[in-house]
Specification:
By secondary structure, this protein is mostly helical. It is built from 22 helices and two strands.
C-alpha cells in the first residue's frame, strides 16, 4: 500500500509539473508557479513565444502581378512560371483571384498599347509585303499571270474569311485576364476544331470552285468564251480563268498551315506575348522574297519556273512559318506550357459542346461581317471598272494600296486595343476596360487625322510611288480630299469595330456592317458616279458610306455597359468570381 501511495504521489507530481510548464508556455507572463522535481516552488521563467514562421515567399504571385502591370517579355514570364513545379500554373487563378490590378498611369497605358500595336503592325506589314512581293513577281512573269492572280484573289479573299478565326484572340484574352490559364489553352483547342472544320470547306471552294465561280461572276463582261481579255498579252478570258484556278488550287495547300499559324499567334498575343509574331512574320517575308525571286524569275543563268513557282513558294513559306513558330516557341521555349488544358493538349475532352456553341456564336457573325466588307469593296471596284475610265481605274487600284497600308496600322491598333480590353473584362474590371477603349479610340482618331492630312497634303508624291504617268498623278491631286476622307473613315471603322467584337456583340456588328455596306455605301457610290463619272466622285461615295458605318458602330459602342460586359466575360471565362460578381 505504501508503495502504491508513493507511486500515486510521484505520478501526481509529474502531471502537475507538466501542466505547469504547459500553462507557462501558453501564458508566459502570468504569475504561474510550477514545481521542480524536488517539490520546491520556483518562479516560472517566462518563455518567449515562438515567432510565427515567415510567410513563404510567393515569387509566382508577385512576379505575375508585375508581369500584368509592366508587360514583361514573354521569355521572362515563361521562366518565372516554369521555375515552379509543373502543376503550379494550374493553381495560379485560385491563388491570384483576390489580387487587384494596380492602377496604371496614362503614360504606362499608352506605352503598353503602343508596344502591342507595334507588334501587330510588324506582323501585318509582313503579310502585306508577301502579297506585294507575289504581285511584283507575277508582273515580271507576264500580265496574263498578274490578271490570273487578281481574279484568283477576288475569289479566295471572299471565301477565305471563313478560315481566319479572328475571335480566338478575344476569348483567350478574357480567359487570360480572369487568370484561368488552362481555359486559354482550351479555347485554342476549340479554335482548331471549329476553324479546322471550316477550313476543309474553304479548301474545297478554292480547289474545285474557283474556275466555275469566276466564269459565272464575269459571264456578262466576257459573254463569249473566245473573247480576248483586257490583258496586254492578248490571251482569252478562259485561259486566264484556268490560270486563276490553278493558282487557287496550289494556294489551298497552304490553308492548314495558315490556320495553324494564325490561331497560335492569336493565342500568344492574347497573353501579350508578342515575340513569336514579331520574329516569324518578317522571317517569312524575307524567305518569300528571296526564294520567290530565285525560283520564279531565276538567278545567274537559272531561268526560274515561272508562274507555277509563285504560289508554290507561298505555300512553302506558310509551312516554314508555322514550323518555326511551333518548333522554337513551343517545343524549345515552351511558351504554351503554362496554359496547358486540364486534360492535355491532344485530348478532345475539354472541347465541349457548350464551348463550341459559344465560339460559333461569336465567330460566324464576325466572319459574315468581314465577308460583307470584301463583297462590298468588290462591288465598288466593279462599278469603278464599268463606269469610269481606264485611268480612273488605275488611280483606284493604286489608292487602294495606300489604303491597305493604312489599314495595316489601323488593324494593328484595333487588335491591340481589343487585347487589352479583353484582359480587363476578363479581370472583371469594367472601368478599366472602358478606359482602354477610350485610350485606343482617342489614339486612333489622332493618328488617322495625321495620316489623312498626309494624304491630302502630298497626293502627287504618294501617287508617284505607284505610277509615273503625269495624267494619273494629276488625278491623284484632284481627288486628294475625298481620298483623305476615305482613308480616315475606313480605318476608323476598322478600329471602332473591334470594340463590339471584344464585347461579344457580334450579331449587332453583322447588322451594322450589312446596313452600312449595302444600304449606305454601295448606293452612295452608285449615285455619285452616275452624277459625275470621275474618280473623286467615287471616293466621295465611299467616304459617305464609311461615315455612316462609323456612326452605326459609334452608336453601338455608346450603348455598351462595361460592368455588364465584365460579368459576361467572367462567366465566359468559367471562373468562380463570376457568380460572386453577379
Amino acid at each position: 500500500d505504501d508503495d502504491d501511495d508513493d507511486d500515486a504521489k510521484e505520478t501526481e507530481e509529474t502531471m502537475r509539473s507538466a501542466f505547469g510548464k504547459l500553462a507557462a508556455r501558453v501564458n508566459p507572463w502570468s504569475p504561474q508557479r510550477q514545481r521542480s522535481s524536488d517539490g520546491t516552488a520556483e518562479e516560472a521563467t517566462p518563455i518567449a513565444p515562438e515567432a510565427p514562421p515567415p510567410e513563404p515567399e510567393k515569387p509566382l504571385k508577385r512576379r505575375l502581378s508585375r508581369r500584368l502591370s509592366h508587360h514583361e517579355s514573354a521569355s521572362s514570364v515563361y521562366s518565372l512560371i516554369m521555375a515552379r513545379s509543373t502543376g503550379a500554373h494550374a493553381k495560379a487563378p485560385k491563388e491570384l483571384e483576390d489580387d487587384a490590378a494596380p492602377a496604371k498611369s496614362l503614360r504606362v497605358e499608352f506605352t503598353e498599347l503602343a508596344e502591342l500595336t507595334g507588334a501587330f503592325f510588324i506582323a501585318s506589314v509582313a503579310w502585306v509585303g508577301m502579297r506585294a512581293t507575289d504581285t511584283a513577281l507575277l508582273g515580271h512573269v507576264g500580265t496574263r499571270y498578274l490578271d490570273a492572280s487578281a481574279y484568283a484573289d477576288l475569289w479566295t479573299s471572299s471565301t477565305g474569311v471563313f478560315a481566319q478565326g479572328s475571335i480566338t484572340g478575344v476569348l483567350c484574352s478574357q480567359a487570360y485576364g480572369a487568370k484561368n490559364w488552362p481555359l486559354v489553352g482550351t479555347w485554342l483547342q476549340v479554335a482548331y476544331v471549329v476553324v479546322g472544320t471550316l477550313t476543309v470547306l474553304v479548301a474545297v471552294l478554292w480547289a474545285l470552285c474557283t474556275g466555275p465561280a469566276l466564269r459565272y461572276l464575269f459571264a456578262m463582261k466576257h459573254a463569249t468564251p473566245g473573247e480576248a481579255s483586257s490583258s496586254t498579252d492578248g490571251v482569252t478570258f478562259s485561259v486566264i480563268v484556268s490560270d486563276a484556278a490553278l493558282y487557287a488550287r496550289i494556294l489551298a495547300l497552304a490553308l492548314p498551315a495558315k490556320v495553324a499559324f494564325g490561331q497560335l499567334a492569336q493565342f500568344f498575343t492574347a497573353q501579350e506575348i508578342t515575340k513569336p509574331a514579331v520574329v516569324t512574320a518578317p522571317f517569312g517575308l524575307l524567305v518569300n522574297l528571296v526564294a520567290g525571286y530565285v525560283l520564279v524569275l531565276g538567278f545567274k543563268g537559272f531561268g526560274g519556273y515561272g508562274f507555277v513557282a509563285c504560289p508554290s513558294v507561298t505555300v512553302a513559306v506558310e509551312w516554314v512559318q508555322v514550323g518555326l513558330l511551333i518548333g522554337v516557341f513551343c517545343c524549345v521555349l515552351k511558351l504554351h506550357a503554362p496554359c496547358r488544358p486540364p486534360h492535355g493538349w491532344f485530348s478532345s475532352r475539354d472541347v465541349t459542346a457548350g464551348r463550341v456553341r459559344e465560339y460559333l456564336a461569336q465567330y460566324i457573325p464576325t466572319a459574315l461581317a468581314l465577308a460583307s466588307d470584301y463583297w462590298r469593296m468588290a462591288a465598288v471596284g466593279a462599278m469603278c471598272a464599268s463606269a469610269l475610265s481606264e485611268d480612273d481605274l488605275g488611280v483606284f487600284n493604286a489608292a487602294y494600296r495606300i489604303i491597305w497600308l493604312c489599314l495595316s496600322f489601323a488593324g494593328a491598333l484595333g487588335n491591340a486595343m481589343a487585347t487589352k480590353t479583353g484582359v480587363a473584362l476578363g479581370r472583371g474590371d469594367g472601368r478599366g476596360a472602358k478606359s482602354e477603349v477610350g485610350l485606343g479610340l482617342a489614339t486612333a482618331v489622332l493618328a488617322l487625322l495625321a495620316l489623312a492630312s498626309l494624304v491630302a497634303a502630298y497626293p502627287a508624291q504618294l501617287g508617284s510611288v505607284f505610277t509615273s504617268d503625269p495624267a494619273l498623278i494629276e488625278k491623284f491631286s484632284d481627288a486628294r480630299y475625298p481620298l483623305a476622307g476615305t482613308v480616315f473613315f475606313m480605318n476608323l471603322a476598322v478600329v471602332v469595330e473591334r470594340v463590339p467584337v471584344v464585347a461579344g456583340r457580334t450579331r449587332a456588328i453583322l447588322l451594322c456592317s450589312f446596313v452600312g455596306s449595302w444600304c449606305v455605301q454601295v448606293p452612295a457610290v452608285y449615285v455619285a458616279i452616275q452624277r459625275r463619272p470621275q474618280i473623286d466622285a467615287l471616293f466621295v461615295g465611299t467616304t459617305v458610306g464609311y461615315l455612316g458605318l462609323v456612326a452605326l458602330y459609334a452608336g453601338l459602342v455608346a450603348c455598351l455597359d462595361f460592368d455588364v460586359l465584365a460579368r459576361e466575360a467572367l462567366a465566359r471565362s468559367e471562373t468562380s468570381s463570376s457568380s460572386e460578381t453577379a
